[in-house]
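Section 5: illustrative case.
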């Protein structure tokens, strides 16, 4: 007998189907609620609402579990490459050796960007934020790489996926070099995905970039940890925009814009700005914690809290370990890391943070690691976007092939004026 939930409205009882996930999560299926009861549900911010059924990423907010296609991120961070992880998310399984070689070759083939796009970059105001540039350039890719009628839909999707994964990295490095008035460094077929990006970012005719395997691995792990996170704000934006059957470039461009926000992927930049503020004000985080606790203050402790995790974000310990490794290797220390560790220690023992289940999230330490790698601050959200791209693509692809998927069009409860008449301007006083 199928499990159901009973709902009684206006004296009538309705049975609503219960959906159970492969890890035992439960949902009440309300897809027929309006038709059967005349009622809709209301859930601002969707904290209690599932938007889809998905087989891609499983996260458990109570015990801090995160798995891509069933594989724990701890194992992927230890053993996988970012390209392998991208393939896993998009295709459902880790690639065979032959599949991995073919996928890597495809990414290499599509790593260049149309030369005419450079005019876009060169005319962009130098001080523009790289996330704004990136979302514009990704949207422009449709114009430079239009669909070819001879290709099947699947062939078109596969080449678009390869173009996006490979070119997003190239576009990001181009925006950085051009913003500094420097020569664009081309991708090299001799370098792997992450080494290629670092070389495009930091190589120079007068100072060749020394590709350090530990720095490459630190970037690789950072991108793996950011690769997907079920129905977060930017992934929901990609699914929502994609549900109108717009091209994938436009849907990804929307995802980049959603990720830019300081409450989401822009938090990695906001964390460093906050830690720098604490450092500049003498290093004592207490005033900032006091503001975070103050109900009348809109200040939030950046890098703390999460809609799903009610314990440590499982990505945090891995990032912390990578920070220690890289800084130790360089014999360097980062005063902002010291402040972050102190802030974490104080906050996680503070009753307000404990009562509100506020723990450090992925953005709290990712910025420290990106600083150690040498990524400029305003590029931190861009690194999040490069990492999250395979997740966005896999979620979009799952949605367009889902027989139950339809145009996303939520309803509302109207609380405005009742009907009233137009008043000519002469009579409005
Ligand atoms: C990411 O969804 C994902 O999976 C996202 C992500 C991914 O991989 O895609 O994990 C990446 O975006 C991580 C989050 C990065 N954002 C930040 O670090 C910004 C700071 N954090 C907060 O703004 C907040 O925690 C959110 C936005 C992340 C989550 O907030 P919710 O779930 O909307 O909860 P809320 O804002 O309603 O807060 C609930 C309570 C409130 O207090 P009360 O009014 O109930 O007394 O917790 C408090 C809030 O004031 N609170 C905080 C706080 N976060 C929540 N108080 C102080 N500092 C904070 N950071």
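Designed sequence:
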């Amino acid at each position: 007998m199928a499990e159901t939930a009973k709902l009684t409205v206006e004296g009538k009882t309705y049975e609503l189907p219960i959906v159970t996930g492969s890890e035992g999560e439960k949902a009440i299926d309300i897809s027929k609620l309006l038709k059967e009861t005349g009622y809709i549900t209301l859930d601002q911010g969707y904290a209690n609402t599932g938007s889809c059924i998905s087989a891609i990423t499983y996260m458990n907010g109570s015990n801090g579990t995160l798995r891509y296609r069933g594989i724990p991120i701890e194992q992927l961070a230890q053993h996988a490459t970012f390209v392998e992880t991208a393939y896993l998310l998009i295709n459902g399984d880790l690639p065979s050796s032959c599949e991995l070689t073919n996928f890597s070759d495809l990414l290499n083939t599509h790593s260049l960007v149309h030369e005419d796009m450079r005019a876009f970059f060169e005319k962009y105001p130098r001080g523009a934020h790289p996330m704004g540039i990136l979302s514009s350039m990704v949207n422009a890719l449709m114009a430079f790489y239009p669909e070819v009628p001879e290709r099947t839909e699947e062939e078109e999707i596969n080449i678009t996926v390869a173009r996006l994964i490979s070119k997003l990295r190239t576009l990001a490095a181009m925006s950085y070099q051009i913003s500094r008035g420097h020569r664009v460094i081309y991708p090299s077929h001799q370098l792997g995905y992450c080494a290629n990006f670092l070389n495009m970012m930091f190589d120079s005719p007068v100072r060749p970039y020394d590709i350090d395997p530990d720095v490459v691995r630190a970037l690789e792990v950072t991108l793996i940890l950011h690769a997907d996170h079920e129905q977060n704000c930017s992934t929901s934006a990609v699914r929502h925009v994609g549900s109108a059957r717009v091209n994938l470039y436009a849907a990804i461009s929307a995802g980049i814009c959603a990720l830019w926000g300081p409450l989401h992927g822009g938090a990695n930049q906001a964390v460093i700005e906050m830690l720098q503020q604490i450092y500049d004000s003498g290093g004592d985080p207490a005033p900032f914690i006091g503001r975070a606790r103050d109900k009348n203050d809109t200040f939030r402790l950046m890098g703390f809290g999460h809609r799903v995790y009610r314990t440590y974000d499982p990505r945090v310990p891995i990032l912390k370990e990578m920070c220690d490794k890289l800084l130790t290797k360089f014999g360097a220390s980062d005063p902002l890391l010291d402040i972050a560790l102190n802030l974490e220690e104080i906050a996680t023992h503070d009753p307000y943070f404990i009562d509100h289940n506020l723990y450090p999230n992925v953005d709290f330490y990712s910025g420290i690691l990106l600083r150690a790698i040498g990524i400029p601050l305003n590029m931190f959200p861009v690194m999040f976007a490069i990492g999250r791209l395979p997740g966005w693509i896999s979620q979009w692809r799952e949605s367009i092939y889902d027989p139950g998927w339809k145009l996303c069009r939520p309803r509302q409860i109207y609380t405005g004026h009742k009907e009233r008449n137009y008043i000519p301007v002469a009579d409005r006083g």
